[in-house]
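One example given next:
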Amino acid sequence: MAIIDEIIKFNNEFVEEKRYIPYISERLPKKKLAILSCMDTRLTHLLPAALNLKNGEAKIITNAGALVTHPFGSVMRSLLVAVYGMSVRDIMVIGHTDCGMENLDLQSLVKKMEQCGIFPDKVNICECNTDLHKWLRGFDNTNMSVTASVDMIKKHPLMPKDITVRGFVMDINTGGLSEV
């Protein structure tokens, strides 16, 4: 059985047995908090546990590296919707130690694309539409990356000046936070 089929089977049982009841919450985040963090699977349970966050208390937005790469991209849009549409007043940007985006090798990614049947002509087409080096970039230093994302959020022309935006790096092993 494929993993998706296993998940669908479990989901049907989850709903039938009403195991969703403990997770029912309001749409708006109770703590008026949004968190931008990395999509690293090690953070799925660690991050909310280390921050004492329960379901429905914060909007958690994840992407590769907890990066805001464009002032008008989907991450910034999500943060602005959280502020204006969901009453968020505080934003945390949380990177983490041992992040896969640190020192990411674009050439290695392109080689893996080619091994999966994405041939150089398709890569070239993409490069005509965007700067792949910038779009798929990682970073050299997690602290500097978090600082850059915090700065982009704070300086965004549509972000209210009274919103608190702070950056942190989480220890992936302990959940400890260090402010940057």
The chain has a mean pLDDT of 93.
